[in-house]
Amino acid sequence: MLSKSTVPLALAQPTPAERIRSVLVSAHSMTVVTDGARTEVTRLTADALAGHVHLHPLATAFRPGSTPLTLEFTDVAPTPVRDRVRARVTVTGWAAAPYRADAADSQCVEFVHATLETAAGTAAVDLEELTAAEADPLAKCEAGMLTHLVDDHAELVPLLMRLVRPAPSPGARRVLPVALDRHGITLRVEYAVGHHDVRLPFPSRLDDVDQAGSQIQALLNSARRASHRGRLFAGW
Question: Which of 83, 86, 96, 198 could form a Cys-Cys staple with 3, CB 3.0–4.6 A?
Answer without folding.
Answer: 83
